[in-house]
Amino acid sequence: MDQGVIASLLQHPLTSALVLLDADGRPLAANRAAQALELPRTVEAYAELLRAARERLLGGETMLACALPGTAGRRLDGWLRAVRDDSGGLLAYTLSVPEPVGSDGATRWEIALDSAEHGLWDWDIPSDTIFRSERWKRMLGYAGDAPADGLNALLPLVHGDDQERLRQAIRSHFEGRTETYMCEFRLRRQDGQWHWILDRGRIVARTADGSPLRMIGTHTDIHEQKLLEQRLRDQQTLLREAQRMTRMGSWSWDPLGDRVWCSREFLRVTGLDEQRAPSSRGWLRLLSRDSRAQLISIWRRMAREAKPANFEVELVRGSESPLHLRVWAQPQVEADGHIQRVLGQVQNITEQRQTDALIRWRTELLNRVSALGKIGGCEIEVGTRRMQWTEECYRIHGLRKEAIDLDHALALYTQDSRDAFESALVRIAEGGLPEQLDLCFHRPSGQRIWVQVLIELDERDGLPPRFVVLFRDITREREASERIELLAHYDLLTGLPNRQLLREQAEKAMHDAVERGTTLAMLFVDLDGFKSINDSFGHATGDALLKLAATRMHQQLRTSDLFGRFSGDEFVVVLRDLAEPGDAGHVARKLIAALAEPLHSGENVIKIGASIGIALMEEGRQDFDGLLRAADAAMYAAKESGRNTCHYYSQDVLLRAQRRLEIEHALHGALDREEFSLVYQPLVHAAGERAPAVEALLRWHRPGHGHCNPAEFIPIAEECGEIVRLGDWVIGEACRQAAAWDAAGLSFDRVSVNVSAMQLRDRGFAERVIELCQRNGWSPKRLELELTESALIRDSESLRRCFELFEQEGVLLAVDDFGTGFSNLHYLNRFPVQRLKIDRSFVQDMLHDSGTAKVTQAIVQLGHALGMQVVAEGVETVQEEALLREQGCDEIQGYLHSRPLPPRELAAWLRARQQVAPATHPRLVLAAQ
């Protein structure tokens, strides 16, 4: 019941005593007149009255005359009215009692009416004339005489909706169907306002045939009561709608009588009907076991503490799924502390529980998807810049989950990213479209993170406008992109620009130089001997050497200069804005000096040099490829000049570069065209004239060009890859020729062939050597391979397997040009070497330089100490032979005894020697030179 309605009822100065009862007959309130009459205040006092009147009221009657016992044995006459809602349902009862005056009969009736200030009327029916009292006039706002017209004059003053009801009530009373005439209707006051009137009366005189002659009655002002009733209905309607919309029902419980009252919405919420609404014990049986125990515990606590409670219960519905209800309970306590009644509300939260569970599941799923996809989100209020983050957003930024403001978050970002983000917010706030940005920040740990950010403005739902921002961690994608960029434009080993990027940078620099008229030069740098070092010490050492060389050279250049790795051991430098052309040579010499410092690798001390070609950008040479060709040609000229030097491009350099390209081109297919041949130089015992071995030496006769110097074409063959196939041919041909000599009875022990490091690295080389010997009828034990020191420096598993097969098959190994290569002698113990060959440079100087003579002496002693024989190359005089014989050298090779000879001439030479000193152990040694 609305408290405002009750308060208005209590305070209104009605002349009738008025009591408000609820639908069960419980007194809710009484006005001052009712309190003065001391009307009953208990439900029992009205129980009999309501039982007698309920059926008639439920049948449609709205008001019944009734009698109540008053104080001191007085009888109180009154009227019981039903208050209904808009749908006709019973809301409450009002009981009105006129104040009694103690007179009898008709006089008592009139006096009672007057004392109660009712408007009195007296209707002469045959003449249709009505007399109205002063009270009646005042009630309707008339001043002076009221009209004495009858019913026909009164009807136009009655509200159109009420006229038929008035006629029907009068007709029923005239016909004797009602003991008392009574009707409620709206009557127009003199000021034009409609006023609710309760019109009551009786026929007091009839004709002999029973026709009514006179009727007396009263008009009672019930306007305020009607307004209160309407307010009550309105409030009840609003309450019912509020409960329906919130799915919340009302209930009350009388603990003493164990009576439970439930609102319609309560029944709808719980799925029960009014006939099935149970008592409190019945409600307990509908609850689940846990909810039952919980409710009993709550009631006991409420009985002790008389405090309100808020709890949830589960309502069991047989085979249907249970309902989850939220219950509020408010006890009403009497003066003695006992609970008189418990009022409350109940709300069906089953769908809410299901929705909450679904939301939790979706939230958890979203969190998992966000974590898997590394996607976080946040909202930023446009005006306040207040921000809310998701859990994944905290994880992406490497922050603890706590309150964070926008400025604190942006402090993690780089300045460029902060500026881009703030600018995007401004554009979007001014009506721009959503934007996507790639931003960079550093976590508190220092880790760099890239995020892709999508920003849009959300102005829906009537909330303050806010930015919705999605963050996606794209660090791996960005790093992969950067790595792809690095792979595409930078050398991974040195970090320098690669050939493609260098070309782009150089072409731009050349364009700028032409525009400004400045001098530009290109330096082509080739590391001398790097391939041998890489082969000898391994790729790890070679890579370290390249990185060190790149670092040393970079330190000598200006920030404006361009520097990149072109390929392998080749680098390109572009010098911009040179004051003089000679400055390029100065820079080149600085680079050579920087590379001259030795590199330590384990026990080895490695020295490298550089050959540098210099080309100036001049008229006719203003494109990158042309300048590069010129610098490359100049570099080869530097190598030919002795290496570890620089050379400017010139016409002569161009000719030499063209010569080199010509030789390289001619080498391809020369073997198939049978342009190669072998010559042989014998080796002689230092103690006698016998020749124990011959060395096979390669010669190339180019048709139309004559003989090509081996020192010129063999390095080119190594660089262009022809040396492997050519070397196999040399070994096979030497074995074939040696077998032919041996079959002809010529006496010698071995034939030797020079082998390059590139041949040793070639997969299957050892197996091919054995197969070539067998194919050409020559024993591997009579084949000697001459290797350079650089070829033996690299200790690899493949080299070990190669030498193991050679040792197993008896192939002999000799170290050629000993003393001119690397200073590490450890390889002499690692590999099965049988001979050392003293380089010709030592032999030529030993007669004139005592230091050199000591070197040759030391080499002989070292070889003998290791159980090896020692051979001297390039011996041309008797004096050189005598000194070497004195030092203990085992074999002599040189022009003193024979120049390299074609096969037929060597056969004649051997026959001549054989007549002097017959051979005893024919073997053949193969050496690559």
Structure notes:
InterPro entries: Biofilm_reg_signaling, EAL_dom, EAL_sf, GGDEF_dom, Nucleotide_cyclase, PAC, PAS, PAS-assoc_C. Residues 660-914 form the EAL domain. Residues 181-234, 309-361, 435-486 form the PAC domain. Its EC number is 3.1.4.52. It holds the Pfam family PAS_3. With 929 residues, the protein is an alpha+beta fold. The protein folds into six domains: 3-97, 2-Layer Sandwich (Beta-Lactamase); 105-229, PAS domain (Beta-Lactamase); 247-348, Beta-Lactamase, CATH 3.30.450.20; 355-480, PAS domain (Beta-Lactamase, 2-Layer Sandwich), CATH 3.30.450; 490-658, Alpha-Beta Plaits; 676-928, TIM Barrel, CATH 3.20.20. Helices cover 42% and strands 27% of the residues. It contains 33 helices and 37 strands. An eight-stranded mixed barrel has the order 28-29-31-32-33-34-35-36. Strands 2-1-5-4-3 form a five-stranded antiparallel beta sheet, sandwiched between helices. The longest helix is centred in the first third of the chain and has 24 residues, at 223-246. It starts with a helix and ends with a strand. 33% of the residues are buried.
Labels describing this entry:
alpha+beta, Beta-Lactamase, 6 domains, 8-stranded mixed β-barrel, 27% strand, rod-shaped, disordered C terminus, Rev_trsase/Diguanyl_cyclase, PAS, cyclic-guanylate-specific phosphodiesterase
> Runs with pLDDT <50, length 5+?
7-14, 100-113, 918-929
Mean pLDDT: 82
CATH architecture of the largest domain: Alpha-Beta Barrel
N- to C-terminal separation? Answer: 121 Å
What global shape is seen?
A: rod-shaped
Number of helices: 33
Major sheet summary line: 8 strands, mixed, barrel
Which class do the helix and strand fractions yield?
alpha+beta
The number of distinct structural domains comes to 6
The side-by-side strand order for the widest beta sheet comes to 28-29-31-32-33-34-35-36
CATH class label of the largest domain: Alpha Beta
* DSSP strand count: 37
Beta fraction = 25-35%
CA-atom Rg in angstroms: 62 Å
Measured as a percent range, the helix fraction is 40-55%
Let me know the CATH homologous superfamily of the largest domain: EAL domain
CATH topology tier name of the largest domain: TIM Barrel
GO biological process, one term: cellular response to nitric oxide
Domain EAL: 660-914
Pfam families: EAL (PF00563), GGDEF (PF00990), PAS_3 (PF08447)
Catalytic activity: 3',3'-c-di-GMP + H2O = 5'-phosphoguanylyl(3'->5')guanosine + H(+)
